[in-house]
Structure formats: C-alpha cells, structure tokens
Amino acid sequence: MASRGKSETSKLKQNMEEQLDRLMQQLQDLEECREDLDEEEYEETKKETLEQLEEFNDSLKKILTGDMTLVDELGGMQLAIQAAISQAFKTPEVIRLFAKKQPGQLRTRLAEMDRDVMVGKMSRDVHTQQKMEILTALRKLGEKLTPEDETFLAENATATLSQFEKVTANLGSEDKIMALASSGVKTKV
Q1: Helix (H, G, I), strand (E, B) or coil at 33
Q2: Which residues form the Beta-catenin-interacting ICAT domain (predicted)?
Q3: What is the Cα–Cα distance from 133 to 97, expressed in whole angstroms?
C-alpha cells in the first residue's frame, strides 16, 4: 500500500510513451512511404496523424492540470508534440528522442549522419536540416554544445527552429511552456 499510486502513475507514463512512439512511428513511416502515395493520400494521412497528435496533446494537458507528479515526465512529451505539430522539427526520429530525453542517442544519430554525408549516403541539405534539429533538441535538453556546434546553429538557423528555441527559452516556468504548447496546438488546424 506504500506506493499510493506510483505503479498506476508508472503505467500511465508507459502508456503515454507508447502512444507517442506509435504516433511518431506513424509520421516516420508516412515520410518513408511518401513516394508510394499520391499527394492527396499523403496529405490526408498526415493530417489525420497530426489530429491524433492534437488529441494526445489535449489528453496530456488534462493530466498535467490534474496530476502534478507527472508534470516533469509529461512536459517533455508535450513540448515534443508541439514541435511536431508546429513543424519546428521535421524528423520524427528526432522528435521521439527529444520527447524521451535521450541526448546520448541524439548524439549517436548525429555521428551516423556525419558519416553518411561523408560517404555520400545523405545529401548535404538533409544533413544540415537534421543536424539543426538534433542540436536544437540537445540544447533544449540542457546538453552542452561544442563551440563548433554553436557556430553551426548560428549559421544555419531557420526561422521555425529559432522561434521554437526563443519561445521555449523565454518562458521559464513549466506552466507557461505548457500553456504555450496548448495554445499553439489549438491554432494549427
């Protein structure tokens, strides 16, 4: 009896993470299969997935307002959902690793991308976009970036990533960040 809801909270968190993983995988699969779909089918499927993300975000918001023990764990997920919906991050894999607060895996992905661009498996443009997303995610997770990474971010900053960075950095409290995430989701349909 000493747990007083800890196992339920743990199970809820696990279910929420699994739901987020499923939606992020759905977005990633959609991007990978884009060539096989006609434009209308692609847009409709993407719209449905984003609507599911919005519903998931609404559920998170309700949980966050009622259960303060989940704020820290679910706050990161909600920011990741907001980033996905706002198009700040275009790579579902980066969104998933950001939501799960996995800087080590983000750094591993970055090293793999650097190798891929050197051997010609990845275009320079895709590399730059994804590196920007990963570095921005690492910064948001409180990771220390090298001076070279900071320079890369400054030289290649996009308006969307800069806005995401600026808005989340200027807010301070978790409540304000969550309020922003919620308001951004409502206006993006």
Answers
A1: coil
A2: 113-187
A3: 11
Asked if residue 2 belongs to a domain, the reply is no
- Lookup: tokens for 161: 């990533």
Residues of the chain with pLDDT under 70: 1-5, 8, 66-90, 95, 98-99, 158-189
* pLDDT score, position 77: 67
Token pair listed for 30: 């959609």
Domain co-membership, 95 together with 108: no
Token pair 């409180």 in the structure block, residue: 142
Domain range enclosing 26: 11-100
Alpha-helix residue ranges (DSSP H) falling in the chain? 6-32, 39-66, 71-86, 92-99, 103-118, 124-140, 147-156, 159-171, 174-186
For residue 99, what are the CA distances in angstroms to 47, 103, 147? 21, 10, 25
d(CA 90, CA 56): 19
- Is 189 a member of any domain? no
Query: How far is 131 from 187, CA to CA, in rounded Å?
Result: 28
Q: Look at phi and psi of residue 57 and say left if phi exceeds 0, alpha if psi is from -120 to 50, else beta.
A: alpha
